[in-house]
Amino acid sequence: MEQTLIRMMDAKSDPLTSLKELIDALRPGKVIDGVTAINNARALCYLLEQHVEYRAALRKQLFTLLGTTRQVQLYTDTGILSNESVFTAIVRRVGSKLLPPPVKPEYLKDLFGVLFPNTNDYVWLNDIPTEVWFEVGAAAHLEELSLAEIPTHIRLQQLEAIQVLSCRLSAIGLEPEIVLHHPDVERFESPFVRLNAEVLSYIERYREDLTARRPPDEDHSHILVLLQQCEQIIAKVWKMAAKNGASVSLTYHLLRLKQHIDRLKVLFDLVDSMTPEKHGPALLGLFLELVKAENRKYSVRDVLQENTELLALQITEHASHTGEHYISETRSEWLQMFRSAAGAGVIVGFMALIKILFAKAHLPPLLEAFAFSMNYALGFMLIHILHFTVATKQPAMTAARIAAALPTIENKKNEAYTELIELMIKVIRTQFIAIVGNVLLAIPVALGIAWLWWYEFGQHVVDTTKADKMLHELMPIAGMGIFYAAIAGCCLFLAGLISGYYDNKSLYNQIPQRIAAMPLLNKIFGEYRSRRLGQYIEHNLGALAGNFYFGIMLGSMATLGFLLGLPLDIRHITFSAANLAYAVSAYDFTLAWPIVAWGAMGVAVIGITNLFVSFTLALWVAMRSRKRRMSELKPLWGKFWRRAMSRPIDLFIAPKPAIEAVKTPPLEEKQG
């Protein structure tokens, strides 16, 4: 490190090369070695404090680099999303990662990538405490410089960056999608418009002071008030989006607005000569932010995570609201869930028969996939339309409800966890009775269909060869039942996301209102029926879409595996139960009871896998969308098991309603 500082004293040394060597000397061997990074920074402090010529050379190299490069793009582009769609941003990042653009030495933005070339440099830089960074700044002794030695070019570049950011901020704030969610912007003078005018006036006066070589004394407090008003509008738009739905493009606009406002605040702190105490924290924060943005500039994951945050929250929120319908509070609701699941079990018995008949037809692979998919999709949609319930659809919906009810980290009171534990108990017993309803009706309905088929046609629905294959498919290991059930669980999870996505899309695009106002529908069915159709779509579009796509996934998975040469298939508990019944009937009910027992056990394992996979994935997404961690659930499990063991029956059967004694009114009321 000292040798690098000595070389900096050479008048012929290149500023970029010298500063790069110094950063290389500060960088620890391992990125996670924060102790070494701190020790290196303190070693630099010591050398600068002990040697006046070292710090003078460092200051000269640094200001030479800053005084001879264009910095506007560094302030306005690095760490700020550009004016492009999310898809274009992803394509551009992938293309730049595969074929990096050339470095332009006149732009500080490009030189930043040269100084910090490692994709994890920001990690060790952030490990250095703030007070150590301030020690480095103090050791440089900038007060030893005269005003003439600091290039005016640096301040002019910062002012130009402020002007660019202000213009962009005004344009984004008046985007139609923003105005749609905040109509007041059209009725009153927008702070985004006034902001740009005030910023231009501020910059003009500031440049005059710099030209006249006098200390700038412009006050920008009124600009900060306008920025605060812009932030209030952003908050209102977020709130409206939470109510009326969101889109990726809206999230993109809001995120860009926030980034521009934050960057403007930092730059105003840097150029404000009235509050020099803000310069250090603002400069350090901006430096660390720029390094991280430079290191992550080709990250596709960051773009997706930032721009789908609001949309993911909206999707899981809609799933959470849907999940409330899958939670029974009382004994009557619990019994109603059984009846609803039993109705679905009846339909599944017929769906299993139709799939067997399609398989017997030996259609071409793609036609067979289409036939299977339509059987599943239309069957699941019929189940929903008739207000029946498929048990395995519950976990993807109820997981979001549980995540929403999780207490905050600060709220560690027992009462908060008690409510959540009671919710989980309700979810489990509702899930249990739904599975019972599905399976207990799917099996006898399949047996009844098999008997009627044999009675009418004199042969079984499946022969013994097909029955053996169906029994083998129920085996958890030998028949890959667990693996295929996990695939079905993933499909269930995706169906839950699709359902939430379409509910959000319905609200955001005002699909119910459009349907109700559609001239052709009003002409054919009348205004009343069109409005009723719109209301039905409003409450059921997500569920119908989720069921349809779930059916497509189940029906095409095996064909997809066949085409790709991969072991892909699905196992679903209710259909597996129906298939077990058809297989038993193929042997005229003469199968040995151990074989039937193994098949029943396979059905149970498939069901548990379906539920566990879909619930875990849905809970993980719901937690991530709320910026919570799965580790926050740890305190819950001990309390849950103690509650479950205190009354195990509550996990399976809803308690009877408490009968309150009728109170006799007081004598005064009788007489009155």
TrEMBL record:
UniProt superkingdom: Bacteria
Its membrane topology: Multi-pass membrane protein
Gene3D superfamilies cross-referenced by the UniProt entry: Glycerol uptake facilitator protein
Organism name: Deefgea piscis
Cellular component terms per the entry's GO annotation: membrane
Keyword terms: Membrane, Transmembrane, Transmembrane helix
Localization: Membrane
Protein name: Site-specific recombinase
Segments traversing the membrane: 341-358, 370-391, 432-454, 474-498, 541-566, 595-622
